[in-house]
Amino acid sequence: MAYTVLARKYRSQTFDDVVGQEPISKTLKNAIETGRVAHAYLFTGTRGVGKTTLARILAKALNCLEAKEPTTTPCLKCGSCVAINTGEDIDVIEIDGASNNRVDEIRELRENAIYRPARARYKIYIIDEVHMLTTAAFNALLKTLEEPPEHVKFIFATTEPNKVIATIQSRCQRFDFANISPKVIAQQLKTILRKEEIAFEEDLILPVARMANGSMRDALSLLDRLISTGVQPLTAQLLEDFLGRPNAERIHRLIERIAERDAAGTLTAIEDLVCTGLGEIQIVDAVIESMRDLLVIRSVGIETDLLILTADQKEKAAALARRFDAAALIYNITALERLRWTIKNSDTPRALLDASLLRFALSEHFMNVDELMDRAQGGAPAVKKKLLTDDRPAPKPAPVSREGQPPRAERLPLLDEGKAPAAPANLVEDWPEILETIRAKLGNGTAGLLNGSTPRELKGDTLVIDFPPTGGMQKHMCESNGRSDQIASVLSEHLGRTVRLKFDLAPAPAGEGSSGPAKSNVQRRYEIANDPAVKIVLVGLDATITGIEEDQ
Are 23 and 176 in contact (CB under 8 A)? Predict the structure, then answer.
């Protein structure tokens, strides 16, 4: 007897056997039980998720000869059920839309639809890949589809529903088949292997389920290939030897070298992967997949259903994830995705791969803006790409001792309460020195916010500080998160008296405004480079601008 592949041998036979599409199966069962079976259905979804399988199950349920009426539990033994399973039933016509897509063939279908079924209750047309029909063929089907004879049912299946014209879709009940989750696929693979009495290792199942990309048929086809090797028990090593899957340990080692900023180790790890026969695209895909797992761990923790890993793999991934932060992983994944498409059209893909992964290993540490501001406010030093081994906040710098320095109170003139005089000349003169004191005590971030500011007036114990007309963001950030009190504390200590702060914007010079002439590219780039937020990033990371790109 000829061998039957697993995808056919273990194809679901009844609604209760369906795996991964339970909501659709339940809906169709309810429709049969309540007598509300539509005259036309449109099943959509990726390959191998059960569209044709459910179409056959529905056909068996409607035409089972052992039941007096449509049933949710076909017998699977009568002539109709057996013939439908093999695709040979005279009343259930399966048509390949890719090879029967012309208008003449659809006209023939329409002419034959008027005749009653030979032995069953319904004449059922199952058209697979229906999106391949021509527009003329679709139009020829419209009238029959809208008002078919009572004995006719249509079931359409397609992987590209967007190509099915709207007038056809509006005449059908549409069901969207979801990709089957790797956990469900893995459980089904285990069940089948036990029924087949084939020994296997647990580490094999999850990688096969992930390689299937939501398709049960693809998963069973991969399993068939592994079984055909004749090796027992089936091991994860077979995935590398026969299916070309990258070695997980080697990928882990490569990402470790990137985390350690080890340039030589990164290149060596890439070479080890290439020597196993992998192409550059396969290596990029594997690194993206692994970094995605690290990103999930950094974002939501290790105890999440978003991770499809064994317990041992989770433990190793968690240890590696602590050496990255989410911002770095997000950048790496997006950069690798762009690299993937570039490599396809490159004559030197290996050089591009080496350069890109070395860039990750040697680049500055990536940090989100909130974390950067917190570190800058706390006075943490500029951060290079060191390993993030713990989450403790960086220590604040020790306060700068001013022992031996005379107090500054005697340099301030006495001011009348009824006036609003300009700031004392010595305060304006000492402003750069005061900013350095703020930098030493509050950090580069807070001092950077005061760049370009000037003390304007001192009235009583209130000191007014002006920002440039374009410094609205600087003013807002100085007023938020308690920075105003921190700056006032440093100024009070420096001046030898308690002062409160008020921040204001200096008026724009005459002739400047929104109605003025358009700014030149040089002016716009100058303003971008001097934006307070940009300055904070540059100071906090000790970075340099290499280029400026504006969104169009």
Answer: no
Q: What is the dihedral of CA 216, 221, 223, 226, to 10 degrees?
A: -160
Residues 316 and 238 in one domain: no
* C-alpha span between 365 and 343 (Å, rounded): 25
Q: N- to C-terminal Cα distance for the chain?
A: 66
SS3 string of 497-508?
CCCEEEEEECCC
- 335 pLDDT above the threshold of 50: yes
pTM recorded for the entire structure: 0.63
Domain boundary among 224, 242, 260: 242
Q: Is residue 536 part of a domain?
A: yes
- CB burial of 80-116 (b: ≥16 within 10 Å; e: otherwise) equals bbebbbeeebebbbbbebeebbebebbeebbeebeee
Give the Å distances, CA to CA, from 195 to 50, 190, 388.
21, 9, 47
Q: Number of H helices and number of E strands within the chain?
A: 25, 8
| Side-chain half-sphere CA neighbours of 43 within 13 A | 26
Residue at 55 is within a domain: yes
Distance, CA of 280 to CA of 542 (rounded, Å): 33
CATH of the domain at 437: 3.30.300.180
> Look-up: residue for tokens 């679901």?
12
Is the CB of residue 175 less than 8 Å from the CB of residue 43? yes
Query: Could you tell me the pLDDT band of residue 40, with boundaries at 50, 70 and 90?
Result: very high
Rg of the chain over Cα atoms, rounded to whole angstroms, equals: 35
Check whether 404 has a pLDDT greater than 70.
Answer: no
How far apart are the C-alpha atoms of 69 and 72, rounded to whole Å? 10
Tokens of 106: 């659809």
Rounded to the nearest 10 degrees, the angle between the axes of helix 248-259 and helix 349-362 is 50
Residue 131, SS3 per DSSP: helix
Q: How far apart are CA 503 and CA 454, in angstroms?
A: 10
